[in-house]
Amino acid sequence: MNGGRERRTGWLRGGAVAAGAVVGLFIVAGMASALVSANGQPGGDPKYVCKGSQPLLSLSVRGPQHAWKPLLVLSITYRVVNDEDGGSIGYWALDSYTAGVQMWLLRAGPYAHDYYWTQTESGIFQTLQGAHSPNNSAIEPTPAYGTTAMGAWGFVNNTSVEKFNSALPQGYLGVLNYGGSTNSTVASTYGVPGDTNMWFWYTTYFAPAYETDYTLGLGGGAWGYLYELNKAFWTPSPSTGATPSIDEYCIFGIPGSAVGYNVHGDIVPYA
Question: Where are the domains of the chain?
């Protein structure tokens, strides 16, 4: 982990996304959220479900177990704009979203004295004509937008080297501009600069922030991203002769996968 996201393989190698000056990006309203409540969980713990995948991909982002005697030490929310989203070969979309992070010090159980954290995101993406789709690298035939949601959980080892800084601000941190651009999104390559001002909570709240003890992945946590194309870009009818749209893209890092993550679908609007 290098503190960023490339979304397509975001929690595997890091990267970013955007919500820049693209016409129509901020006028999306009333789109269904991919975030739903987990069954039977008081307060509605976030649950992420990839509806079209077989076998079904799903992830619940729950707080720590009560038996671990958790003490909440970090609770922040922030808004991100101009964050470039990475796909299989390069940046493919510009994203805007609200993120929330909570972290607890565990005072009992098998992880006593370490930290447990959760992170969620919810927002919108816009892909551009000429960019490559996130999974199959198809050329996007037209600009399009939709909803995106993300959830993750993991642990941080509490060591004498990396220390949590509880004196830093908490609560709402404001709007963070990651500095992504439409140019590098259309270029669809990681050789273009991409985000120029990314921010990652771990490297801010832990010093010296080597990230050697930031744990996420098989056995240490789980993560999932969901993308749903707005219905305005779905193929209206098979009789139109239009190229069928691909309207759902999911990538999950969950225990049990031999490669460390599972991918389903793609985002390609009809032409």
Answer: 10-268
